[in-house]
Amino acid sequence: MFYLHVEITNYKQLKIIIPDRIEPLEKKIEQIISVSGGEPYRSVPGLYCFHSTFRETSLALISATFQIFKHLSALADKLYGFSLVLSDSEWYDEEVESRIRNYIYRIPEENSIWLFEDRKKNLETHVTTALTKGMTRILDKKEELPGTYERMRLFCRREAHIDSIVETIREMGNPLGEKALVQLNGHPLNGVDYNLDAVLGNLCPDENIPLIFLSNCSSENPLDPFVWSINKEIEEKVSPHLDNGELDLWRSLSSAMDLFRNSWNAEQCSDFIDKDFFTLYSLYLKAYIKIRKENHLLPLIICKNVDKWKEESRRFLAELFNLLIPGEGLIPLCSGDEVDWSEYMRQGKVKTIHFRSYSVEEVRKRIAGAFPDLNLEERELYSIYKSCDARTIPMFHSLISYLERGYYRENCHAAEGVLEGFDELTLTLLYLIQVAGGLIRKEDYLEFFESRNFSRSRISERLEHLYLFTLIEGSRYPRPVFGDLKSFVEATLSEQKKELVNSFTNYLFSLWEKGTHLNIENLFLVILGYGQVGKSLQIYQVVLDRFLNNKQFKLADLYLSRDFFDMEALSVGEKDALKNIIFAGRMRSALLKEDYREVQSIISESEIIKVHKKSSYSSHTSLQHSLYMNSMGDYSRGLNLAKEALFEFQQSGDSAGEAKANIELATALLGQGKIRTSQDYFEISRRASFQSRDLLCQIRSSFFKSLSDFIFGNIPMALRGVNDILPVAERAGRREWQLMLIHLKGRILFDLGRYRDCEDIYRDAYNTACYYGMENAALLLKRWIARSLIYNERYRDGIELLEEMEYTDESLFFLAEAAYFGRREDNALEHLNDAGLKYRRIDYFPGETPLWRDGFASIEGYSLSRDSENDVLLNQIQALRYYLRGRGGDLTNAAAGFSELTGRYNTQGTNHYFHKYFYLYSDILPDTFSDEERRLKILSNSVKLLQSRAGRFDDQKMKHSFLNYNVWNKRITEESVKRNFI
Questions:
Q1: Helix, strand or coil for residue 1?
Q2: Phi, psi (5° rounding) for residue 947?
Q3: Distance separating alpha carbons of residues 918 and 940, to the nearest angstrom
Q4: If DSSP codes are grouped into helix, strand and coil, which group holds residue 664?
Q5: What CA–CA distances, in Å, run from 499 to 493, 503, 506, 929?
Q6: What whole-number distance in Å separates Cα of residue 837 and Cα of residue 840?
Q7: Taking a C-beta distance cutoff of 8 angstroms, is the pair 273, 297 a contact?
Q8: What CA–CA distance (Å, rounded) separates 576 from 83?
Q9: Residue among 59, 324, 46, 313 at smallest CA distance from 181
Q10: Stated pTM of the model
Q11: How far apart are CA 478 and CA 437, in angstroms?
């Protein structure tokens, strides 16, 4: 600790007598102290402390002292005398004031600077002194030697490289200049980033538009460098700088940017995350380029240490460069060691500037300039050069260490001597940065230490010195440069400081719990590394969920296969909890991939399925097991497992888990045909998911609620539900559910007879499916575009679309409809006969992703058993076939078929097309007196079923549309009027 005491004789009286002189003097002293890194010492007026004990701080203190002395001397004729006292002492807080006071009483003369005798070696080397009556008086500063900043500039800064880089980039900034990527090639310890900072200081001084910086985030997720580079200030300016098409795209996706930036956690991101994020980020960069050009600034983007990035991250970066260098004039400035851009770059050139190691002669010249006070023997010079592998930063550290110690110590880390000059608080801060590894911001460190009664200025000063000595890097998120120093730093700390790590890791966990933007992969490794198993398990579950929500299966499987935990060190409960997490994760991964063989294998090999009850995270095991049973059509077991999961989630207070369990419970009820009850549970899940802000659960529960409303017959409510949740699905980037919701909306509009609207929304959905490469969804949607055209009486257009695709049961049925409406009934029968041969039983319904087999199975299929006789599409095919056969004269077989089909009504109450089947049956019966009663009875059934469904509408306009614009419903209505049924 350094101390400076400013003693002004009769200070209180002077404040009263000459306040116009004393008050400005006070402000000036406070300003000098603050700029120099000091702060007022509590409870002792005029006493200031400087907390670090290395050379740079002593130089700052002496500089501040002489500045204050100059201002006091200028007012000497107005004062009664003053004294400045410097000390480099290790005092206890309670003795500081008494020691200073006793010393001041002994000062032989005023208007001078004095040096306390206790410990003065760190100060005396920088000043000339004289003894006056046994006390040390400071006469002057010694000849100015370079400070650490200046020494680093002289030793590490490569002026020729800087000039070359600056010139190259300025040429690229010329509208006619050649566009290229600039690669600063060299090991980071050769001072590449230090010189890069000098380049930016030259090119971008005092800019009001922040640059975009990307750097490796050390996590497994390849998108992390981009996510963590997003600047809110730039993002807010994007919209005005995009053209109309880009703006529409940005608006449709921009809320997802919030998810990437602020909620990079389990429940929130896209199922096509790479594609959506690339689109967003490229628009973000396009706008950034335009903003900088408008402000006459170079469109630079800075990418640091690209050689350390994941391969997928580099490819993502190269795709951006290939798009934006030739198209928008982006100027990328990248650093990294031996990065071969030729395999990535399709567009533009790469200009490489090499940062090679200094020669011994170059090192000798730079030492002479930067360390003129260091007498280094030739043997020592070669030893430093060799031990540091000729790398600039380690050599600089070795030279600073030599300066601090007064001698060169071989066979130790180059930076150890620098660390030995730090006080314990600086070392503690460095250690916590080593613990966190770039996980949190500077502001978070300030907050943590402030909660432990350390001032922000003290911590800020230490951060600056750690940056100064190149021990940490990262402008927003400090991280250590030398991972191999961690054990050395830990060994220098007292036991009390080591115990601080536990508090610190709890603080990191609390930040995440509060929703602070943290890299949860790295948080997991930090918390696990310091033995907090319970918290580690909680984060591990979240990390897996995040990867699986985003369908990042490679990352999920990597985390599921790694042995993160020491099983021998875990308790029995912790082992069971881990097994539950891994089992549920593996199950969910296989289910999302629709790999049901793998699911069965996981179940057969896992003992946790037998012992999971009542252990931690058993709810997740029950939930995934329930989801599997529901997907396989075993709704009874699915229901029981969902109830187990729901109870366990309720016991643990997991509201998000409750919402998911309620979906599976309701899905099982829906599969059993219990529509009304399932509606209630889907609504419970929907409300709970909005409270827990679980977007995926909101979308799924809302979809199934609307689906059950549609099947039950409350079509207006179903349409309102779809319209409410569709924007959520779009903003959340859940593309498959977005398209399935659009399909459900299309089905609703189809029932209402709004065929032109159907065509429009199906076309938009089809384009989206093609954009994301969703082949099965695109084929289904294309078939329904064709059906919309057919029902709009554009038969030829619809047929052409269907004939472009491989024939399926559904496309053949739609071709048959087109042929029938076009009065080519023979062709229609041919298609229907082919369709009947192609039916395949649905083996499973994907749980968390939609089914894209056909447009009926994906909706009504959830409410019917898996038997072929319950398949809606097959029933539709059979009904139209029987109808056309009956019209063609085969009345006996057609009537027998209809009799069997309509006879299933009592067991297929959720199949809402029986009014159509009864109508078609009645229409083929001959109009003779003997069959009239039978025919009218069958037609009456059709009318009753249609009216019953229409009676559930709560919107009269939609009810009118349903009865009068739907092609088949209109025929039934007209026939019922003709027969005086209504």
A1: coil
A2: -65, -35
A3: 9
A4: helix
A5: 10, 7, 12, 98
A6: 9
A7: no
A8: 70
A9: 324
A10: 0.84
A11: 7
Contact 334, 182 (CB under 8 A): yes
- Pick the closest to residue 875 from 802, 922, 867 (CA basis): 867
The answer to whether 303 and 272 are in contact (CB under 8 A) is no
Taking CA atoms, 932 is separated from 221, 282, 391, 937, in Å, by: 71, 70, 101, 8
Q: Give the residue among 738, 748, 746, 740 at the shortest CA–CA distance from 709.
A: 748
Determine the Cα–Cα distance for residues 223 and 273; give it in Å rounded to an integer: 9
What is the β-pairing status of strands 112-115 and 135-141? antiparallel
Q: Which residue has the tokens 């695709």?
A: 805
pLDDT digits (tens, 9 = 90+) for 197-231: 999 999 988 787 888 888 887 778 888 889 888 88
Whose structure tokens read 């399935």?
740
Among residues 411, 373, 412, 362, the alpha carbon closest in space to that of 156 is found at 362
CA atoms within 13 A on the CB side of 165: 32
- What are the beta bridge partners of residue 885? none
CB atoms within 10 A of CB 330: 24
* Best CA proximity match to 7, nearest among 77, 95, 109, 94: 109
- By CB neighbour count within 10 A (0-12 exposed, 13-18 middle, 19+ buried), where does 491 fall? exposed
As a whole number of angstroms, the distance between CA 344 and CA 181 comes to 12
Residue burial 539-556, b: 16+ Cβ < 10 Å; e: rest: bbbbbbbbbbbbbbeebb
End-to-end CA, the chain: 98
Rounded-to-integer distance, Cα 560 and Cα 358, Å: 46
Residue 78 tokens read as: 């107005």
What is the reported pLDDT for 266? 43
Chain-centroid distance of CA 850 in Å reads 24
> Helix, strand, or coil here: 415?
coil
List the beta strands (DSSP E) in 677-775: none
Radius of gyration of the chain (CA): 38
Write the single-letter amino acid at 59: L
Please state the rounded mean pLDDT for residues 492-512: 86
Q: 497 forms bridges with which residues in the sheet?
A: none
What is the tens place of the pLDDT at every residue in 632-675?
Answer: 999 999 999 999 999 999 988 889 899 999 999 999 999 998 99
Instruction: Read off the pLDDT of residues 73-111 as tens digits, 9 standing for 90 and up.
Output: 999 988 889 999 888 776 666 677 788 778 888 888 889
Q: How far is CA 612 from CA 75, 307, 660, 663, in A?
A: 81, 44, 19, 21
Confirm if 696 and 734 have CB atoms less than 8 A apart: yes
Query: Average pLDDT, stretch 248-274?
Result: 67
673: left (phi over 0), alpha (psi -120 to 50) or beta: left
pLDDT digits over 582-623, tens only? 999 999 999 999 998 999 899 888 766 655 456 678 899 999
Would you tell me how many other CB atoms lie within 10 Å of the CB of residue 407? 9
How many CB atoms neighbour CB 200 within 10 A? 19
Record the tokens describing residue 689, joined without a space.
């998911």
d(CA 758, CA 787): 9
Residue 55's pLDDT band (cuts 50, 70, 90): low
What percentage of the chain has pLDDT greater than the value 90? 54
- The DSSP bridge pattern shows strands 472-473 and 479-480 to be antiparallel
Task: Return the amino acid letter for 575.
Answer: K
Q: Which two tokens stand for residue 282?
A: 């490229």
Paired tokens of 22: 């004393």
Cα-Cα-Cα-Cα torsion 519, 521, 525, 531, nearest 10 degrees, comes to: 90
- Report which residue type is found at 281: Y
Q: What burial class does residue 233 get, using C-beta atoms within 10 Å of its C-beta: 0-12 exposed, 13-18 middle, 19+ buried? A: exposed
Contacts of 482 (CB under 8 A, 6+ apart): 413, 415, 471
Q: Cα separation of 89 and 577, whole Å?
A: 53
Per DSSP, 146 falls in state: P
Nearest to 134 by CA among 111, 158, 175, 106: 106
Angle at 234 between CA 230 and CA 238, to 5 degrees: 110
